[in-house]
Each structure stands twice: as C-alpha cells, then as structure tokens.
Amino acid sequence: YNRLAARYNPVVLEGAGSISEINLRDTDLVNLPMALHAGADVILVGDIDRGGVFASVYCSLMLLRPHERRCIKGILINKFRGDIRLFESGVKMLEELCGIPVIGVIPYYKDIYIEEEDSVALASKSVRAEQGKVNVAVILLRHLSNFTDFNVLERDPRIHLFYTNNVDELSKADIILLPGSKSTLDDLYELRRNGVAAAIIRAHREGATVMGICGGYQMMGQEVLDPEHVEGDIERLPGLGLLPVSTRMTAEKVTRQVRLRVAGKWKTENGKRKTEEGFPLSGYEIHMGATVPVEGAFASPLNLLEDGTADGYSVDDTCMGTYVHGILDNPEFIDLLLHRFAGKLSATTEAFDYRKFKEEQYDKLADHVRRHVDMTLVYKILTENHD
Asked: What is the pTM of this model?
C-alpha cells in the first residue's frame, strides 16, 4: 500500500468479510487495521438481499471501538429488490440510528456480468457436455485456483464450457483444460487415485486437445518434485506424462505481468502455418516451482516472453502447457485453440472479444452505481481532510 500510495491518489481498498469480526481483531490485516494505517475514509456496505440489513449495519458499527467508528463516513445499501421508494424511510432511520449518512441504495441488477470474487460460484456452473458446440472441460480440482482463467470461455458462443471430474463426461470433451492449483501435488495425487488422470490420457489418445495452465501444466509433465517440502510431505509424484518436462517446487513465488507471443507450430483452418512472429498476447504469472525439459527432450516452448525467455511446452497443437494465467483472455489464442474443431462451428459464428465485453460490463456497473449514489457526497468525503 505504501508503494502504491506514493504514486497514486486515490487508492481504493476493499475489505474482506465483516468489518467487525472482533474475534479476529488482533490478526486482521484487511479491514479496519488497514484503513487506519492508510488514514482512509470508510464506506460500510450492507447487503440487503440477505435480510436483516438494519441489524447488520447498526450492530457492525456498535461493535467497533470509538477510534474505528470515526473512520466510517458513509453507508451504502446494496442489492435492493423492488420499489426503491419504499426504503426512503429506512434510509432516514439508519442515518438517525448510526449518525452516518447513507450515500446510496443500489438496486439489484442481474444482467451485469462481473468476474466472481471466489470459487464458490463454481457450484452453479455446467457439469456436462452438450451437442453442437466445441465442448471444453475444465478439470474440477479440490484446490482449484485462478478459476477466472476460464470465464471468457463461458461467454464465447462457439464453446460450451463445463467443469467436471467425471471420467465419462471427460470422454465427451473436445478440449480438456487442467487449471491452476493451490496444492499441485495433492491434486495430482487425487487425479491419479480417482481415475481422472487416466481418463485425461485416454481422451488425448482418442483426439482431445489437452492444455494445462500453471499447476495444471506442472501435472502434465513426467514428474513433480518437492524435496524441500514446500507444499507438504509428498516429495515426488509421477505426472500425467503428456509433456516431456519435470517440475521442482521452490519456496520463491513468481508474480509478474507478461507480454508474449505464441512460439508453437500452429496451423490455421486452411492448413497454412502461422508466422513465427505469432500474436502479441498478455497475461500474468503467479506460481511456485520451475519446469524444465527432461533429459533427452528438446526445447519446444509454447510461448516466447517479451524479455526473451521461454514459457511452457508444446508437443503440438493438441498437447501443451503454460505458466501464463489470462492467456485465454486473448481472442487470438482461443482462435488457435479452436482451429482443429472448425468443422463443428457454424460459418456465421464469430469470435468473442472478452476484453471488450469486460469493459462494457464495468461501464454498465459504473453507470448503475452513479445513478443511485450521491456522488457529490462521495467526492466531498474523498476531499475533506485529504487536501
């Protein structure tokens, strides 16, 4: 925060969970202790859709210590359903009870698609293949991470995306994606135990494309080593054997944004090979471990990074892995991934621009918030005592 605050103004901090979890007060790093450190003015958001918003807001404030309560400069009521005029008296009551202004009441808006905050949303996603589209299966890991890597595929009209660890459903997939993991070795052990690893190998042998991202890329190799017990007690596990690489876990975590171009030998729908320059793509890395070709294997990176280093491994256009999250947000890469299945797609089906879609959704959300929040008051809060 200190580094960012030296360069930017304002800096927006988002809390996590309740503002008044008093049992966690001594170790809380993300709510009021951070606001106090930053000298930040705080807007308390109440989710009226859950019910009990008066008790929630009032009691949250009463559980704060006096110096914490002084940070709270506004209350925002979110996800209101029905006639908003019916809550006008409620606004006055809250302001009288709390002595803090209500800066707005945001109506529930179900047609704005913003990436979910955590993987709880996976419970509502599709779990089966469908006819008439390119079926893309994401392996449902116990410790799945960075699940937003696949949001773009849910919106692409050419694709039916589903999450599964069912071996029968995997046999119906055209493309299988192995996602990132918070615990690569534990998830790899489970895939081998429950038969999913064997199902992935069998599906690839029968014509499915298999691609791994981050931890999924590590699992696709010959082995994953953890002699220093970075992840746990397992020191070595054989991988799926789809890529001739070996991964060694390291305590140091790589976190960086990257620009890259595809280096693999790809073909377009008409059979012509893509140029060596590839496409200018972007993404980010956040991983522990280093992956290298095994002895006797030749180097065949999937991507070349802007700094001249290589990323990932590509056997061919049916088997590949990468450390780059967000690579699927690049429409050019999805086009490359789908080219083998051109025969399944209608000639009128167009590619999907996910970046443009995301910007449109954030613009919709911003317009919606502006219409229902007293922005003059918000700007006043921002500027008072911060000139």
From this structure: 0.71
